[in-house]
Amino acid sequence: MYTYLLINIFSISVPLLFSFEKRLAFYKKWKALFLAILITGAFFIIWDHYLTVWNVWSFNPKYLIGINIWGLPIEEWMFFFTIPYSCVFIYE
Hints:
Distance between the termini: 33 Å
Strand order of the largest sheet: 1-2
Radius of gyration: 15 Å
Structural class: mainly alpha
Largest sheet: 2 strands, antiparallel
Helix content: 55-70%
Shape: globular
Strand content: under 5%
Low-confidence stretches: none
Number of helices: 3
Protein backbone atom coordinates (compact mmCIF):
# COMPACT_ATOMS: atom_id res chain seq x y z
CA MET A 1 0.00 0.00 0.00
CA TYR A 2 1.18 3.54 -0.83
CA THR A 3 4.00 2.07 -2.94
CA TYR A 4 3.86 4.74 -5.65
CA LEU A 5 3.94 7.51 -3.03
CA LEU A 6 6.93 5.93 -1.31
CA ILE A 7 8.80 5.63 -4.61
CA ASN A 8 8.27 9.36 -5.19
CA ILE A 9 9.37 10.28 -1.67
CA PHE A 10 12.47 8.12 -1.72
CA SER A 11 13.40 9.31 -5.21
CA ILE A 12 13.48 12.95 -4.23
CA SER A 13 14.57 12.80 -0.59
CA VAL A 14 18.35 12.64 -1.07
CA PRO A 15 18.53 15.05 -4.04
CA LEU A 16 16.32 17.54 -2.21
CA LEU A 17 18.40 17.38 0.97
CA PHE A 18 21.69 17.71 -0.90
CA SER A 19 20.36 20.63 -2.96
CA PHE A 20 21.22 22.83 0.03
CA GLU A 21 24.73 21.46 0.46
CA LYS A 22 27.15 24.39 0.37
CA ARG A 23 29.39 23.13 -2.45
CA LEU A 24 26.50 22.12 -4.72
CA ALA A 25 24.01 24.94 -4.04
CA PHE A 26 21.60 23.34 -6.49
CA TYR A 27 18.73 25.36 -5.05
CA LYS A 28 20.10 28.40 -6.90
CA LYS A 29 19.08 26.76 -10.20
CA TRP A 30 15.50 26.02 -9.15
CA LYS A 31 13.86 28.82 -11.13
CA ALA A 32 15.03 27.51 -14.51
CA LEU A 33 14.54 23.89 -13.47
CA PHE A 34 10.98 24.35 -12.23
CA LEU A 35 10.03 26.20 -15.40
CA ALA A 36 11.40 23.33 -17.50
CA ILE A 37 9.64 20.74 -15.33
CA LEU A 38 6.37 22.68 -15.59
CA ILE A 39 6.51 22.93 -19.38
CA THR A 40 7.39 19.30 -20.03
CA GLY A 41 5.21 18.05 -17.19
CA ALA A 42 2.14 19.77 -18.63
CA PHE A 43 2.58 17.90 -21.90
CA PHE A 44 2.94 14.53 -20.18
CA ILE A 45 0.06 15.13 -17.74
CA ILE A 46 -2.23 15.77 -20.71
CA TRP A 47 -0.79 12.68 -22.42
CA ASP A 48 -1.37 10.54 -19.31
CA HIS A 49 -4.88 11.88 -18.83
CA TYR A 50 -6.03 10.93 -22.31
CA LEU A 51 -4.30 7.55 -22.36
CA THR A 52 -5.96 6.75 -19.03
CA VAL A 53 -9.38 7.90 -20.28
CA TRP A 54 -8.94 5.81 -23.44
CA ASN A 55 -7.97 2.78 -21.28
CA VAL A 56 -4.55 2.47 -22.87
CA TRP A 57 -3.21 2.17 -19.35
CA SER A 58 -4.45 2.41 -15.80
CA PHE A 59 -3.22 2.67 -12.24
CA ASN A 60 -3.61 -0.11 -9.71
CA PRO A 61 -5.51 1.37 -6.73
CA LYS A 62 -3.78 -1.15 -4.45
CA TYR A 63 -0.60 0.97 -4.65
CA LEU A 64 -2.18 4.43 -4.44
CA ILE A 65 -3.51 6.66 -1.66
CA GLY A 66 -6.76 7.31 -3.55
CA ILE A 67 -6.56 11.03 -4.32
CA ASN A 68 -7.18 11.81 -8.00
CA ILE A 69 -6.83 15.07 -9.90
CA TRP A 70 -8.18 15.20 -13.45
CA GLY A 71 -8.48 11.42 -13.50
CA LEU A 72 -4.87 10.80 -12.46
CA PRO A 73 -3.62 9.73 -9.05
CA ILE A 74 -1.75 12.37 -7.07
CA GLU A 75 1.29 10.10 -7.16
CA GLU A 76 1.40 10.41 -10.96
CA TRP A 77 1.38 14.19 -10.67
CA MET A 78 4.19 13.95 -8.13
CA PHE A 79 6.13 11.66 -10.47
CA PHE A 80 6.42 14.46 -13.01
CA PHE A 81 8.17 16.60 -10.44
CA THR A 82 10.17 14.14 -8.36
CA ILE A 83 11.77 12.11 -11.13
CA PRO A 84 12.86 15.01 -13.38
CA TYR A 85 14.18 16.87 -10.33
CA SER A 86 16.16 13.86 -9.16
CA CYS A 87 17.52 13.11 -12.63
CA VAL A 88 18.68 16.66 -13.27
CA PHE A 89 20.20 16.82 -9.78
CA ILE A 90 22.19 13.64 -10.40
CA TYR A 91 23.27 14.87 -13.83
CA GLU A 92 24.36 18.22 -12.40
